[in-house]
Task: inverse folding
């Protein structure tokens, strides 16, 4: 099962500013999902973050 991260969690794990993450989401560059029944609280996966960052040697 895939683990989903909030923007805050990605920020804490990577040090990437939240504004940068939100800008990438708004521009459609960082893929996210919104949990069922909500309109807020975007979530992303490690794979999607790595794809956005251009990481090619992803650890699995």
Result:
């Amino acid at each position: 099962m895939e683990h989903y991260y909030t923007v805050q969690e990605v920020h804490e794990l990577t040090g990437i500013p939240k504004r940068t993450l939100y800008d990438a989401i708004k521009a459609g560059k960082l893929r996210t999902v919104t949990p069922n029944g909500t309109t807020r609280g975007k979530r992303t996966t490690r794979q999607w973050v790595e794809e956005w960052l251009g990481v090619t040697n992803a650890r699995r």
